[in-house]
Specification:
alpha+beta, five-stranded antiparallel β-sheet, 16 helices, 16 strands, about 40% helix
Length: about 500
């Protein structure tokens, strides 16, 4: 029996209870909000509809299986499970994404999108003389700029674009719940300049798209036709430019409840055992992006770049206020020639993703997940710049990156580790993805304590992995066989004694 108990991994560990501390001020966990609101008629369904919409830093697609699981936790009042939702491995998440992709691919809006932007054979150019603005506007924001119009844009005069507004960013769900974040007091006042810079960096990136008509940007007599040329021109004219590789905890909900922030991370099983327990280390999915801080005599702006759940790989403004628990860390900062090089690679990454969109418009969610998530592009460039990649998870299917026009980007994407098949990620990538190196600054209840235990085990060489599904199945088969053998021996001995 001792052998059988060992085979089945039986142990009298008490169930793990998610702690309620530490918590940032004016913050509640999702479970607390749902305890109070789950009985409100229609609220759970309204919240799930909101979660199914595209969000700025959404860590995963709300697939039918995930929606079903979330509804089960709420209706079953499993608040502990809700605080670690979903807690699946990447191997478990992958099939749900594929199923969702097949469902969405049948959606009329996706069919219409593919009809508007018919694909071309991989590696070939469009049969038209040039890709049109209409073809790219679903995937990259260009502001008032056009692919068909050649123009010279000067940054010497202030931007005439409107200032920051929460219109379209913040919505009332009722019952005291708001979705969406307000303004960042430091960055929002620069919105007009930041929006102009983001639009122009996107437009300059697409100067290299097939036969598009080029746009030129000037600043104090220096001109640029590529993103990296603009960064170099800004530096030449007395501007400081810092490009940061930034990491955050992904905010899955962006909810606020009765004036308080709602903590809602999206948890993934790292397949690492928390020392002293049989629990796996569950980690909140992180968000990664490149951020440009420009300060100088003509331009003062902050913009970011990442491939988002909205299907866009583009430069964006970053004016909203993150909730405190999201934290934030610059894994790397690039200046001078390195800042120019990162900008060049990001521009080429933008074109590579645009080629994917034009060639594969039938991909649901704009290709988010099969073409990667926010981490993939950042990790690929990080590896080129530093020799290491420290992000998890990466989901891009390297086989899709085969357009010869994007040979450099294809190789970068293929070089980074992939988590689509559910392999156990390296601890360096787990810890590298975190938005903090000081674990005590992490305010997600229970997570810092687990991190400290795992990090110590990693450093002293005692780190253990949780059993793989193959091992678990094997142990069950062996256990069943052993039980059968034991039963056979008992029956045989009884008959013999008679």
């Amino acid at each position: 029996m001792s052998i059988l108990l060992a085979l089945f991994g039986c142990r009298s560990d008490a169930p793990y209870v998610v702690p309620e501390e530490p918590m940032p001020a004016n913050t509640v966990m999702l479970s607390q909000m749902m305890r109070e609101l789950s009985a409100t008629p229609g609220f759970t369904d309204a919240m799930l509809v909101q979660l199914d919409k595209n969000g700025k830093k959404g860590p995963a697609l709300m697939t039918p299986a995930l929606v079903k699981r979330l509804r089960e936790l709420i209706l079953g009042k499993d608040w502990q499970g809700l605080d670690r939702f979903p807690g699946w491995t990447m191997r478990s998440i992958n099939p749900t994404v594929r199923v969702a992709g097949r469902v969405v691919a049948k959606d009329q809006s996706v069919t219409d999108l593919a009809a508007r932007h018919p694909g071309t054979p991989v590696g070939s150019k469009s049969t038209k003389s040039a890709v049109t603005t209409d073809q790219v506007k679903d995937y990259v924001d260009l502001g008032d700029y056009s692919l068909e119009k050649a123009e010279i844009v000067s940054l010497d005069a202030p931007s005439k674009l409107p200032g920051f507004t929460t219109d379209g960013l913040v919505s009332e769900l009722g019952a005291g719940v708001v979705r969406g974040d307000g303004e960042n007091a430091t960055l929002a006042p620069m919105h007009a300049e930041s929006q102009r810079l983001a639009d122009l960096l996107n437009r300059l990136s697409l100067n290299g798209l097939d036969d598009s008509v080029p746009v030129t940007v000037t600043v104090e007599g220096h001109s640029a036709k590529r993103p990296q040329e603009l960064v170099k021109a800004l530096m030449t004219t007395g501007h400081t430019v810092v490009v940061a590789d930034a990491r955050y905890f992904a905010n899955f909900g962006h909810f606020h409840y009765r004036g308080r922030d709602v903590m809602m991370p999206f948890w993934v099983d790292s397949q690492i055992r928390v020392p002293g327990t049989r629990r796996p280390l569950l980690v909140p999915v992180s968000h990664a992006e490149y951020e440009w801080e420009v300060r100088g005599p003509k331009v003062n702006a902050n913009v970011s770049w990442y491939f988002g759940i909205d299907g866009k790989a583009e430069f964006r403004t970053m004016d909203t206020q993150d909730q405190p628990w999201v934290l934030g860390r610059h894994a790397h900062e690039y200046r001078d020639a390195d800042a120019v090089e990162v900008t060049r690679l990001v521009g080429k990454m933008t074109i590579a993703y645009m080629h994917q969109h034009l060639e594969r418009p039938e991909l649901p969610f704009g290709g988010y997940y099969p073409l990667g998530v926010c981490q993939d592009g950042v990790a690929a460039i990080e590896r080129k710049m530093t020799g290491n990649d420290t992000l998890f998870p990466n989901t891009a299917d390297g086989a899709l990156f085969d357009d010869p026009r994007d040979a450099e980007i294809n190789e970068l994407i293929k070089a980074i580790p992939k988590d689509r098949e559910g392999g156990a990620p390296e601890p360096a990538r787990i810890f590298g993805s975190l938005p903090a190196t000081n674990f005590d600054s992490i305010t997600i209840p229970g997570f810092a304590a687990d991190l400290k235990l795992v990090h110590t085990a990693w450093q002293d060489g005692s780190l253990e992995r949780t059993p793989s599904w193959i091992r678990r199945v094997t142990l069950k088969i062996v256990g069943v066989a052993a039980l059968g053998m034991l039963a056979g021996i008992v029956v045989w001995r009884r008959r013999r004694n008679r």
